[in-house]
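Notes from hallway chat w/ T.B., transcribed later so I don't forget. T.B. wanted the structure written out for a chain they're using in a teaching module, and asked if we could keep both sequence and structure tokens in one place. Agreed to drop them here.
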Amino acid sequence: MKHRHTNLKHIAIGAIVLTSTLAFAPLAVAQTEAASTTAANPLAQADKDFVQAASMSSSTEIDAAKLATANSEDKDVKSFARHMMLDHTKLSVQLKMAAPHGVTIPMNNSDTTVLGPLRGLKGKAFDEAYISKVGVEGHKQAVAAFEKEISDGQDAKLKKAAQDALPTIKKHYQMAQDLAVKKGVSQ
């Protein structure tokens, strides 16, 4: 039991270190082309689209969660944000590990159209926008992207990564919907 506790502690510390490292990256980067490929390892368009959508989704979730820790005063919103930061950091690492050799996964390609409007908001106004745009709408789009990769993707490892991550993304979507109901945010 002590060995398992130690492993979990190391995993948590690794996620915190990775998250801390990401904190010093630019908060928002214009949309970049994901999945740069080599001639030796081209990806099908469906797989390129998935890599772009998945990496942007997680990057946006992480950066929005950082904003939430600073701009929200609500303990439930901050708790949700911390949960999103940890899970999406883990999902980003899993996506990178699933990518075929020669495929680059961008790690800092947040959607500036989502983050930009959040920056100037504080308190309840921030909470409502964050829950609606990032929590509910962001996860709704992510579920669709992961389901599309599962049905249309050509790369077996990326399809498997999408299948493995989909339950977590669906759980996040449900958590966001529940938080919206609890806080009276229209969906």
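Follow-up for T.B.: Residues 4-39 have pLDDT under 50 and may be disordered. Might be a good example for the class.
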